[in-house]
Amino acid sequence: MSSDCSLVVTDLDGTLWDREGTVHPRTLAAWEEVHARGIPLLVATGRRIASVREAFLALGWSVPAVMLDGAIGIDLATEERFHSMPFPQVAAHEVLAAFRVAEVDPCLYVDGSPIEVYVSENPGTHPYHLEMLGSTVATADLDEVVEALPVLTFSIIGRSTERLMPVAERVRAIGQPLFNDSYTLDGGAFTVTALGSNKWTGVLAYCARMGIDSGRVVALGDGINDVELLENAALALSFEGAHPEAVARADHLLSPSHEGGWSELLGHLR
Q1: Residue 239 forms beta bridges with which residues?
Q2: What domains can you pick out in the chain, each with its CATH number?
Q3: In this structure, are strands 72-75 and 7-10 parallel, antiparallel, or unpaired?
Q4: Cα dihedral value 200, 205, 211, 213, nearest 10
Q5: Strands (E), 29-71
Q6: Among 94, 87, 88, 96, which residue's Cα sits nearest to residue 124?
Q7: pTM over 0.85
Q8: What are 130-151's pLDDT values in tens digits?
Q9: pLDDT tens, residue by residue, 20-79
């Protein structure tokens, strides 16, 4: 099956590049070929803004990107915001309260520069996660942050699912909890985004802004956070060894990302 494609949407980790962040030479060549064919490319990832910007700067690419699993969309070439789904302030306070019932303080992600993430004096996330955030994280009173800034995502990495399951149950009416075990730190990642926020909603916002037919989107993804993206794309591509939920929604499976499987996309495009 090949597709008359209006837009290629791709996840990053485990998809465009491997879990170590290495892009296979065949994938690099295929990315350039998609550009040469005049097919627009859009990134859709769970990564935060600075992380995506830094990764693509290193590759010499400027791309539009849906980040934080659909919470925000930015054209990194122009800095234009084409999509944003923060929590309503009341809901953000309630989500924060749910974490505190479990006695863990989350990371609060906002659309800010240079500070994108706020944590308390006693952050509940893994120390290595804080190290990865680098200069983009600051310590603050989280209640004051929620009061002053639109919150895009709440996140904890390195806590057990059992510890955070009560939080997930408490927030289901006001947010979207997601457990992602693709991280190597103990306990994986737990995030809460606003109701209705996922990668596909960001894709739809980009298509509307650019006048692109959303009925002819080809999507590539490998994770539990790619489910809505793969379900709604005209052609869904995943990878051998990907998360079972992603595999179940794929029209075709490609070779693993570390083998350059992304490049096999070209065989599915007309």
Answers
A1: 254
A2: 7-84+198-268 (3.40.50.1000), 89-193 (3.30.1240.10)
A3: unpaired
A4: 20
A5: 41-44, 64-67
A6: 96
A7: yes
A8: 999 999 999 999 999 999 999 9
A9: 899 999 999 999 999 999 999 999 999 999 999 999 999 999 899 999 999 999 999 999
